[in-house]
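Q: What would this complex look like in 3D?
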Amino acid sequence: MSVLAFILALVGLALMGLSQPQHFRWLFVRALPEKKPRLRGAGAFCLGVAIAPVAWTEGWAIGLLYWLGLVSLASGALLLLRTFLPIRSPR
Amino acid sequence: MNLRQSQSLLHTWSGLLTGWILFTVFLAGSLSFWRDEISRWTRPELLPAIELTSALDGALAELNRRAKGARSWTIELPNDRSAGVLIRWQPQGEKGRRPSRRGESNSNAWLDGTGRPAVVRATEGGDFFYRLHFDLHYVPAIWGRWIVGISALLMLTAIVSGVITHKKIFRDFFTFRPGKGQRSWLDGHNAAAVLALPFHFMITYTGLVTLMTLYMPWPAHAVYGSREALFAEQFPKSAEVMRTGVFHSLPHLSALSSEAEQIWGGGRVGSIRIEQPGDTAQEVVMRRRLADRIVDGEQPVRFAGSTGTLLSAPPRESIGVVMRGAMIGLHAGRFADGALRWLYFLSGLAGTGMVASGLVLWTSKRRERFTNGARGSLGVRMVERLNIAFIGGLPLAMTGFLWGNRLIPVGWDDRAELEIAAMFSVWSVALLVGLTAAPRRAWTLLFAATAFSLASLTLADCFLSDVGLWKSIERGDGPMTGMAGGFLVFALLFGFLAAKSGKSVVGLKGGGQSERPLPPAEVGL
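A: Here is my prediction, written as structure tokens for the whole assembly.
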């Protein structure tokens, strides 16, 4: 279940990141520099839902701790991906 | 000066003045999440096979042989992560002294998991790093706690002021620009701080709460009259058991353990204390494992040893006691299983990285003002040298402790102290290197030495002990395989750092071009 929570957190954070123009244009070089509120909403939803699997198995108190830790881990993983994935940056 | 600038100033100086203490506290604290595993690694004579009933029987027989007529006996049982049974005893007339856990001595001994006596090397093991992270060493414990407490308070200040200072906290969330000198250090510092921000805040705040009655004794004085009175009321102790001199057989601990576990509602026994053993007045106190729940508390259950009658169950805990216990439990993370423990550990390392990158950033900012071979001010040079001694030196010194554990002969007197002396000796050499060698050379040398030390330790341990990599894999011993694997991973990490620092001076520009100078409010004044 913690793997599922990690994946949901990763997807949620990725979507929230892509809602920002500078990250969206990293993947889609020719996109217009505009914010993507729907992506931000979907990302926030995934990020929130990520607590469900760990709260289900561990209870709310430990589940919340798991969730916070997994969100930190997922954001670190995305930071490394964003930094070192060989995609040409538009800047 | 606007709010952001004033917070930046506060962030910079509260972080800098306590940075080296905080680096030590964070690194040793992170290792303390593996306290039991490190203790197992440092006592390779003990294997994890556990047979609880025979361990209890063996412990009673051994205590009866070694400490008949003692004032009390204590049996500390192994948990899922440790190995061996520690037995301790207090002779008659000796009161209140808690013997240390340094293997065999006059008042304690180790048994293997099946209750047979074991010859175990004297070592502080993982307890050393645990104590180091809040007591420090070579200073009285109370001083150490005050120093660490003041540092933690300033850390909390640095966290809050850092959040206010960081203008683009969401925009920069996934931003790391390597090879851009000062900008890279700032990105790294921000990433390490922001990505695990809830952990940093939680661990610092709960760390202060752990020793709150030391730092803020006045509420206890106002309500209870003294700290001692507060603890006497909230954590009452039973009256001393007096010896009658009439013999009685020893109690059946297995049955009493089951009864205590029923009272706790599923908790397991962590330690057993028998007061006045072998006497008709004997009493048995069962304490639960701290790993059973978030709230830290042993909930002692007391039985009459001669009859097995329940004398006292744990009192109902007040909300204040539960809150305090929950804060301590959150800080220590004893309840955390494998995955959550890893998250604790990684977040702790992120905190260590945050402090280290903040310290280097301070010199990096100032070093860029002293180009063309200028040496920089005395303050900058001093901070730079101390950074080398702590950030480069402490990890190397910790490997010195591990090497000391393997190389100091088992039979030597005071070998536990010698292991610690080995660590501080290596650290002193690292300080000398930091003070005398050119910064680039010193960073590279210390990182490379740490990498070599860890890699060679893993290799040598295959021949020096039964918890080396191959033997642990063969035995299916996950924790010890993890320890050896962890050494190799960190050897690679430090090798990488040595290679990187060889190419660019840490604190100066990286391989690429530096961007425009950062505004003071963004990087700290």
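A: To summarize the key features: The beta strands of chain B are 72-76, 85-90, 108-111, 269-275, 283-288, 301-304, 310-312. The two ends of chain B are 12 Å apart (CA to CA).
Q: Very helpful, thank you.
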